User: Fold these one by one.
Assistant:
Number 1:
Amino acid sequence: METEGTYDVQAIRAQFPILSRKVKGKDLVYLDNAATAQKPLAVIDALVHYYSHYNANIHRGLHTLADEATAAYEASRTAVKDFVGASSPDEIIFTKGTTDSINLVAHSWGKSFLQEGDEIIITSLEHHANIVPWQMIAAEKKAILRVIPIDDNGILDMEAFKAMLGPKTKFVSVIHVSNALGIINPVEEIIRLAHEQHAVVLVDGAQSSVHLDIDVQTLGCDFYVFSGHKIYGPTGVGVLYGRRDLLESMPPYQGGGEMIKEVRFEYTTYNELPFKFEAGTPNIADVIALKAGIDFINSIGKPAIRKHEEMLLEYATAQLKDISGLRIIGDVKNKVSVISFIIDGVHPQDLAILLDNQGVAVRTGHHCAQPLMHRLGIVGTTRASFAAYNTLEEIDVLTQALNKSLKMLL
Amino acid sequence: MNNPKTIKNIEQDLIDDFSLFETWEEKYEYLIDLGKKLAPLDPAFKTEDRKIKGCQSSVWIHSYTKDGLVHFEGDSDAIIVRGLVGLMIMVLNGQPSKEIVGAPLEFINTIGLSSHLAQTRSNGLRAMIKQMKMDAGVLG
Ligand SMILES: Cc1ncc(COP(=O)(O)O)c(C=O)c1O
């Protein structure tokens, strides 16, 4: 499936209804995939099919609809388990998204295991979702949040990280792939070094899950989290992979139905994994449709998609570098198909408005990584991010639209 | 300087001007041009507490009275928004406080700015107008 020449991008595009719409009278060129990916028809159909044919509450009913819905929901859990290489579906917790997953861990693990003076390490590249929950629990527990510095290209200073590690290090929470710059961090080494100090490691896979082959057992991370909507699945569903012994040692995050074994007014005993962390009626429809997103990726294969995206990245990088005054931020070798750039004398917002009028959707601003922008001394960037369905022609449209915008602005 | 035209007069002039634009490019080139021509605001007035924080850009409005009329100066770090600042100054500058506070400013919809500028950005425009009206109210 990954042999050269067989990547049929038009056949892939045909699976995405939204790609044929117009924006402001122009063909949509969607290059904001790092924010959220578009949905193949299979995902949309899975949602419609669930609500039209077997909508029921899961795990408790004894009727046919409940059986079918429960089976589909649990089939999705198994698909996710395979998607990240976990050893058991019990290690897969469904959440609302990456943010929710990180909050669950910070809250539940932090509450039980953090003590005054303990250290939590994150990186300078983090999304706010992997900063704020740690600040909150650190403040509550009087723990200390430390940040691995980067160089001007966004590369982590691993020597500084090594120097930071010590017996006080209890948790290391790192972004696998930078959403703002696309840089791939050396998480294997980070995990190995952190484990030498018996620290627990969470990998924020919001950006890596869609591009890179993920095997949590090979990586050796303790937690891996991501959002369904960035892997061609629906919004409102995310994943927390956690090592079984860790999840078992952690207290529930929220209380309610589903997560209990037995409730009396005097006491409650909790359900087994994974249900202990899934209180209340879950987001059944979106969880089920998430499997369709994973199936879409598997039908092409991540290596084939990656190869296509790398080709797009290389082409776009060369094109953009020809634009005078344009500087790519995080112009490094080891990255996914994301280009973040600034242009001398041009405010990103002006660029976004003019590109939008030409049908081109890119993201501008701080990308929910204000501390990173601050460190790099910029207010924000313009970011183009590519997915399985993008084409070389679309990059030509981007380049032309950029040139036209600059002519208008400068 | 007293503005001999009323707010309504100026709005009508703008509606007439914009009706000549046939493409989105012309509309935006007009705004960009306005933005470039807007006199820079004295940095002393670009303080943190006077900053109107938009989604991605910032706006500053400096308001004062002269001969009983309200005057505005303004700035933004983004050029199109700067053009919008210039546009609002064109409409509201040198008018009596009461007129500014009560102006419905319907021209914004008529010239198609609200649809051309996406939601968050016209929210920025709204915040800008709110500030100008509030200042006018206080100064009046
Ligand atoms: C690296 C990273 N972490 C966390 C998040 C937050 O994801 P969500 O908003 O889906 O919870 C994102 C999404 O932008 C991200 O890119």
Number 2:
Amino acid sequence: MPVNAQFLAELERVVGPDGLVRDEGELSTYESDGLVSHRSRPRAAVLPETAEQVQAVVRLCHRDRVPFVARGQGTGLSAGALPHPDGVLIVMTRMNRVLDVDIPNQRITVEPGIMNLEVTRRVAPDGYYYAPDPSSQVICSIGGNVAENSGGAHCLKYGFTVHHVVGVEAVLADGETVHLGGPALDSPGLDLLGVLVGSEGTLAVVTKVVLRLLRRPESVRTLLAAFDSTDGAGNAVSDVIAAGIIPAAIEMMDRTTIRAAEAAVSPGFPDAEAVLIVELDGPGPEVAAQFEQIEAICDRNRGWGVQVARDEDQRARIWRGRKAAFAAMGRVAPSYYVQDGVIPRSTLPEVLRRIRDLEKRSGLTIGNVFHAGDGNLHPLVCYDDAVEGQAELAEEVATEILSYCLDAGGSLTGEHGIGADKACHMPKMFDEADLATMRLLRLAFDPADICNPDKLLPTPRLCGEVPGPYRAHPAEAAGLAHRL
Amino acid sequence: MTEVVGLRDALIGQIDACAGGAVARAGIDGDAVDGVVPGVVAEPATPEAAAAVLGWASEHGRSVVVRGGGTKLGWGAPAGSIDVLLSTRGLGAVEAHRHGDLTATVQAGAVLADVNAALAVHRQWLPLDPPHAERATIGGIVAANDSGPRRQRHGAPRDLIIGMTLARADGVTAKSGGIVVKNVAGYDLARLLTGSFGCLGVILTATFKLAPAAEASRTVRVTLSEAGRIDRVAGALLAGGSTPTAVELAWPPAAVLVRFESAAAGAAALAEQAAALARDAGGAADVLAEADEAEAWRRHEARVFEGEGTIVKLVVLPSDLSATLAWLDEASRARSIECALAGRAGLGVLYLRLAGPVPAQASLVRALRERLDPGRGSAVIRQAEGELRSLVDVWGPLGDGFPLMRQVKRRFDPGRILNPGRGPGGL
Ligand SMILES: Cc1cc2nc3c(=O)[nH]c(=O)nc-3n(C[C@H](O)[C@H](O)[C@H](O)COP(=O)(O)OP(=O)(O)OC[C@H]3O[C@@H](n4cnc5c(N)ncnc54)[C@H](O)[C@@H]3O)c2cc1C
Ligand SMILES: Cc1cc2nc3c(=O)[nH]c(=O)nc-3n(C[C@H](O)[C@H](O)[C@H](O)COP(=O)(O)OP(=O)(O)OC[C@H]3O[C@@H](n4cnc5c(N)ncnc54)[C@H](O)[C@@H]3O)c2cc1C
């Protein structure tokens, strides 16, 4: 049933006049997330203040089969929070309270609209922090992080959002509220929390989150080294891993992104083909011993211009250069397209070589900044909208890079998610049986298909009727099994 | 009788035909699961053949119980009849060890100890140390999301798994995740299957992120005159910046084992530091290395996991540890039950061994559950004789998420052929 005046009146009764946005102009605020190339306007947006209001809104949607999409801060980079044109957008930003801080058990319970960095701010005086630190941590919500299973520079050692969420309260597509997990570990039953994290808002609307807090490490040491080639830097990374060291972070930037960062925030990086940022944390003596090893490895791989952060200010300066890399690209190109493919770390030299060939062939500048420790690339394909056809070319180039990642055994996305943006690429990574199995899960949660539909999995509406390249399963090829 | 045998031989023939080779045989007493002898045992040698066996079973509505090492098939609800026991013993390969990427792909039937022996060639390991590592299989460990003391540092299987191939109940093979450590493409079915006790699908292969093997290890053994000091000692040890790989509690009498693993000098220094902290907090502490250390850990595991009897997995918030021990002390005395406990002091995940009159054990489990609100703790019977399992539900309350779990089971296994009744909550 379409969203009509009566439905809007019912929504208004739930969230109040102040919580309902129906004006076309005001709705344009919510047209896109961080990926502005995808736009669409919802029929209405609601800004609930309580879990009960979320539940009441979802109940109405379920009753009338109206699609709904949850939205956090709208910083997502895969059009996950793209509104449904016939549906309701549930904006979670007003639900941003801290509900409970439990330091003895290293837990904090928050509403999902709270900013990521705010969580750490609340517990920092006690010597604790919340580990996942996306570069967007000052502007993105915990609810968005849960939905995307967001990572950060420090996930090499500390893992992703899924490793730090121990419980949620969520409203299912039929309006039922469930509690999965909790402050205590190992709640008996299927690990539905484990699949809800990273489900891109397609399984439920999260209304409460219990997070694990970590004690601040005793010692942190950060080093920056320059290299004459990305291969040299890549070899240093391999040597670090081979030495049995798991740094808190290893980040790599190439010449293009170094220059951009320099132009934007002047972190004082050397003008080199590549820089590595390596951070170690842990008990003092252990960090000191490993730091010596890292310095020796950089040396052995002809690293130069080594900068060691002497204090928190210098450390912050190095990280400012790294975290500004995306935004800084605006200094060297009018527009850019960020890709988020992942490769097995050991294939880095080969994949970078292919990207450089592509750069030459396409004539577009491609900056590379990446989480080198875990193989998550962020190629930035630069283009100029004013030049006819360049935007399309950039998108083709970005898609080509994804195919290099898949060829190397990697993934379409390491942290930004599939969303609406890459749903049609899913058949390149997963065969029909894989996707059908994922669909079983979605059907279990949302048989009416109203919870953020047309995201994550390819649908005919989104991708047309072209099915992905069909690959027969080995058992099938051998005549052992038959598809139903 | 001959008719039954004839029928069974026919089934064996059908399964072999589907699997493309001789994989099935008649079940014998030694195959009994929880006292129930399966009609047929199938032991496929390839993941494809395993999937084909399932395809056959679902087409014919036959129930399948999956067996890895078979070390804990006595868990969960008592078994009904079993048409096919699907053994993963033939799926034992380490398919790939990408040491440069710190990942490995392993078939479900591989035994953990063998896997780790193979990975040790490159000084790496799959950092899981559940009980009975020399017999438990990767599939069984993942299906039970089982872990051991080093969970404190390395997490449980659900934290380490990055990809999986699985056979659905209808025999269709599907994969989730991949071989890279960072990956958010698609639903994380590998995590869904982890801890599902074989009720949603059969794990064929699993891919994990690995850890470098530590150069050296030291363990601090702290003994406490009063159990009430546990919170304080464990708290002091964890609040220091020392990052132990394990912080284990044993009781009674109350003792804490704290393990440090890193470069040689580092481990020793950290252990000495922790021993000093523990003494300040009121314990007696000594530092163990080499054979003494190994022996201390062997005895710690044996304390709960060796032999028959009842084992309850008890989870509480770490801040409730002391109160829980005090309560257990009194409640077990009042019921004439002997009880011993070991587990993760830093995480609140404990294993409780009970011995004594079965009705009294049942009463203790019920009383324990009454103390625990959903999400703030649980008591699940992991191993017990049938009598106890008939007196008290093995899982206890599963909370308001259970109807949804049922929906997931219904979608993945509509014919309810897979480990029927043995999944969480009897799924
Ligand atoms: C400059 C910049 C840098 C970035 N750096 C990183 C990085 O380093 N690492 C990283 O992982 N990401 C990064 N991102 C991406 C983005 O910030 C994350 O994906 C973030 O988690 C999105 O949070 P949000 O609140 O903005 O969510 P939104 O964009 O509003 O929504 C994202 C998804 O979450 C769903 N959602 C939101 N709230 C809820 C809820 N309460 N219940 C259910 N579903 C919900 C939405 O439906 C949508 O599918 C970056 C983005 C930018 C713009
Ligand atoms: C509380 C507790 C008590 C324990 N008690 C004992 C004990 O008394 N004796 C002992 O020897 N060990 C015991 N263990 C250890 C346990 O056996 C191992 O940790 C391991 O998890 C079992 O692996 P397995 O290969 O033997 O699994 P199995 O016992 O064969 O199977 C375990 C479960 O996983 C399922 N499964 C197995 N393989 C697969 C697969 N490939 N795909 C899907 N599902 C599968 C089975 O159907 C079953 O539900 C205990 C562990 C704990 C935590």
